[in-house]
Predict the 3D structure of the following.
Amino acid sequence: MKSFEYSAPNTIEEAIESLGNRWGETEIMAGGTDLVTSLKQRITAPQRVVSLKNISTLREIHESSDLIQIGAMTTLADLSNHSTIQKHFPSLVEAARSISSPQILNAGTLGGDLCQRPRCWYFRNGYGLLAQNGGKSLIPAGDNRYHAIFGNDGPAYFVSASSLGPPLIALGASVSVVGADGKSRQIALDDFFRIPKSESERETSLKPNEILTAIHIPLSGLNNSVYEIRHRHGLDWPYATAAVAFKLSGSKASDVRIVLGHVAPTPWLASKAGKSLEGAEVTMSSAAHCAQSATQGAKTLSGNAYKVPMVKTSVKRAILIAAGIQMKG
Amino acid sequence: MAKEDNKPLDSGISRRGFLKGVGAGTVATGMMPGLAPENAQAAESAKIQGPGEVPITLRINGRNRRVNVEPRVTLLDALRNRLDVTGAKKVCDRGTCGACTVLVDGDPIYSCSMLALEAEGREITTIEGLGTPEHLNPLQKAFIENDAQQCGFCTPGFVVACASFLEKNPNPTREEVRSGIGGNLCRCGTYAGMIEAVLDAAEVQKGGN
């Protein structure tokens, strides 16, 4: 690890002032579960690390009748143990607990989950976020078994590593970001993630001197769930996940949102699939139909076609779980 | 230095100290007052610290330990290389295997993935703080009785993680134990013995024995 300066300011304003305006000059430390390893592996080598640990407001959770606001430094353990979150958002609890390492849940934060860098092995081995050599991505001809099947028109092929992003987007969450001018703006979480077009960009709409401060989730009574397909039920990232949220009136679904995880450079809103379930009765067959349409537009690479049936299965199962329908077989 | 608590660990001499042949004396050299920056305000908020060494105080197993570390030093490296607290092991050094597990304010974390500076002001408990060879805690005893280790390198991390799990889940099912220790890896594959050990220790703690 290269040496760096460190500061742990008490306020967001001081933290913003400590940040540089170019990526790579400074890095923000939340729980450190991703950053410390990235520093060791020299995936990033900042001159300064700015820790958010002393900014107590970033750990607060506020509730009103129609909204819950979660500070970005809330740990995944605190998130999954929070009574309101347990009551309204089983998808968030499941997504956090599926990370399954108590050590990560205790240190890792909600904001950190959304801002963690991709696990792409080209990126983690120093080939850059886009894994390009001479302007050409190494991934289509390389080992792409864990890479994207959506949003992979180039130049990005990695998949978003966020576990909480998909269920939060399904729930209509937004985030507060404080910018260099000290002012806070609110962005729909769906717009927070983006696919970088060049090596100088990152995977979110954050600027280098901006801080994600809070996540807002409307309390709108949506049924919600997440279904992950993973190799091992221990500390690892899933192959594919589906997060769903919808209002259930009788057995009919409305306000349907289906968001896929680990299959695209961002959490991937499967809007056609959502529409196919809109107004429909939730049954085994409508769930299967919706799941089929969630795979539309998938563009597989040489080694990742297996993710397509996983998307189908995870969407179907997530819908059935959210609707409380017992699965057969 | 008089205020420094540099007593050798537990039985009077640690394996590491023995290997060095000098015990705690080696540790003390790293903390000579002359090496500490004069400015006692170094811990002040918003102050830029480093990249050189920064004096910090870590509270480890109930004792305050002063040490100078660069900001880039992890809690694990500070414990092992600077403070001679070598129970937590360095294996993957990337937040995956759990051999470096310590408790911070009672919760298990990977000490390889936390900077030492981030641990200031927190209560750190390492395997050395859970029991001694003379006074094993019930979980350590149960690990021995259930032959829950082979090479033993992952064992301290497992014991710390399991101790925290048991404290939060005093009456666990086998399945809960399995998922509760999901943050640690054993390459010898002694999970079966470890799960038995946790279940046994739970019985002992409930007063069964």
About this structure: Chain A touches chain B at residues 1-11, 14, 18, 29, 32-33, 36-37, 39-41, 48-49, 51, 53-54, 77, 100-104, 106-107, 233-235 (CB under 8 Å).
